[in-house]
Write a structure and sequence with these properties.
Largest sheet: 9 strands, antiparallel
Radius of gyration: 23 Å
Helix content: under 10%
Low-confidence stretches: none
Mean pLDDT: 88
Number of strands: 20
Structural class: mainly beta
Number of helices: 1
Shape: globular
Order of helices and strands: EEEEEEHEEEEEEEEEEEEEE
Strand content: over 45%
Distance between the termini: 29 Å
């Protein structure tokens, strides 16, 4: 088998189950979500975008082969639900995905134990860089470079007290009196929390995002530190 004979589902490699990829999914550009509007008296149609960088899901199929059919029950327990999938032909990152099909394990040849299976992942449109380092700031006015091909929705942890205005790129968010504690802003999921406690009521304004290119990181108020996990992503 080649070095591209695997995928990983929630951190577990398919080859650990004796499941080898014979055909990797093609790297696919997601389709923008649009609507077509017909205007009376005007030729053609007008394309209306749902928003900036709004794309549909991608169906990605890994075609696999296995020799030991006795492992099918444990594979079926593993391949379910939602999680992160990494494909060998695009290492170093992952898609957020959900298993979207029944998985028939078909015999390759009568009388042989070898089985084929097509495993379909319904992936969100962006590919995320893995193992990113957190960026740490103690002085306002620094910059963070987003090397991705679309805007990123970071995870931000802020330590401070009193009212704080946090400015990241073109975004400004106001955080009410923290009383010397931390708050984490999960910008992708639009959630704010501290040690499992819901702190959405402390946040006013839009959750920040990192535009492609350089983003200024600044604030007003009593801030000890700001830590940012960029969540860089690509089409």
């Amino acid at each position: 088998m080649s070095r591209q004979d695997w995928f990983e589902w929630n951190g577990v490699r398919s080859t650990s189950y004796g499941l080898y990829v014979s055909e990797q999914p093609e790297i696919t550009m997601p389709l923008e979500r649009t609507s077509q509007i017909t205007i009376p008296g005007r030729p053609g149609t007008l394309t209306k975008l749902e928003g900036e960088d709004v794309y549909g899901d991608i169906l990605m199929t890994a075609r696999c082969v296995m020799k030991d059919a006795s492992r099918i029950p444990e594979i079926m327990r593993w391949l379910k639900g939602a999680g992160k999938v990494t494909f060998a032909n695009r290492p170093g990152g992952y898609y957020h995905a959900r298993l979207s099909n029944q998985i028939p394990f078909e015999k390759v040849m009568r009388g042989r134990e070898n089985r084929n299976a097509a495993i379909v992942f319904r992936c969100k449109p962006f590919w995320y860089a893995a193992n990113e380092s957190d960026k740490y700031y103690t002085t306002p006015g620094s910059t963070l470079y987003n090397a991705g091909s679309v805007y990123a929705e970071p995870i931000i942890t802020l330590n401070g007290s009193g009212p704080i205005d946090l400015m990241i790129g073109n975004s400004i968010v106001t955080i009410d009196d923290l009383n010397g504690q931390s708050i984490t802003l999960d910008c992708e999921n639009q959630e704010a929390y501290f040690a499992g406690r819901d702190m959405n009521s402390y946040v006013n304004g839009e959750f920040p995002r990192l535009e492609v290119g350089y983003n200024t990181i600044a604030w007003t108020g009593n801030v000890g530190s700001v830590t940012i996990r960029p969540n860089t992503r690509y089409l």
